Amino acid sequence: MPRKGLRQRRTADVVGRARRGGRPRSGRRAQPKVVALGGGMGLAASLAALRRITGDLTAVVTVADDGGSSGRLRAELGVLPPGDLRKALAALCGDDDWGRTWSEVVQHRFKSEGALHDHAVGNLLIVALWEQLGDHVRALDLVGKLLGAHGRVLPMSAVPLELEALVRGHEPTRPEELSRVRGQVAVALTPGEVRQVMLVPSGPPAVPEAVEAVLDADWVVLGPGSWFSSVIPHLLVPELLDALTRTKARRVLSLNLAPQPGETDGFSPQRHVEVLVQHAPKLAFDVVLADQAAVPDQESLSRAAERLGARVELAPVAAAGGMPDGAVSPRHDPELLAAAYDRIFRMHGRIGPWR
Question: E strand or H helix at 221, and its extent?
Answer without folding.
Answer: strand 219-222
